[in-house]
Amino acid sequence: MGQIVEDKLLIWKFKLGNTDALRRIYEKYKNDLLKLAVTLTNDVNTAEDAVQDVFVSFAQSAARIRVAGNLKAYLATCVANRIRNARRDNQRHEAFGLEEADCVVCETGRPEQWAILSEKMELLSKAMAQIPYEQREVIGLYMQGGMTFRQIAKVRNASINTIQGRYRYGMNKLRSILNSQVDK
User: Fold this and answer.
1) pLDDT value of position 27
2) What single string gives the DSSP state of each residue in 43-58?
3) In whole angstroms, what separates CA 117 from the centre of its chain?
4) What's the count of helices (H) and strands (E) in the chain, helices before strands?
5) pTM of the model
6) Residues 57, 62: Cα–Cα separation, whole Å
7) Alpha-carbon span 177 to 19, nearest angstrom
8) Side-chain half-sphere of 144: how many Cα atoms within 13 Å?
């Protein structure tokens, strides 16, 4: 069964109240979404929180979910939007000199650690943190989110040429950063 057909069946079952379908969606995409979130935030804990928030919102909005195409791309866009909004909120708080609000810790416990960053992943993560966020976002959505440049352009309300340029410049900067670290 193709991925899109399987996803549509899972969404249909989920909308009918089948919690096993939600669990299958979560298990199917959590690792890819976490990799994307780590790429965008450069922080495993923040990434886990973003992915968890997206799945909580997804679970709470079963009746309103309208996924016309690729479920993975839809969830990846949700993760990127969640992180983008959090970055914007943090910048506002910093601009106004507000202290960060205390976080309410969820008593239900966190999911087990999803990924252990190897030395190579840590090197890549540090390199990704050195490129501009817009380029990092396009690279993450393309490589981890499985989205096309056209899909990214539509979601980001930008031209395909702009998105391809961000990808190309970001990849060139990554190569340069990684090559200089390997040569040391």
Assistant:
1) 92
2) -HHHHHHHHHHHHHHH
3) 16
4) 8, 0
5) 0.64
6) 9
7) 44
8) 23
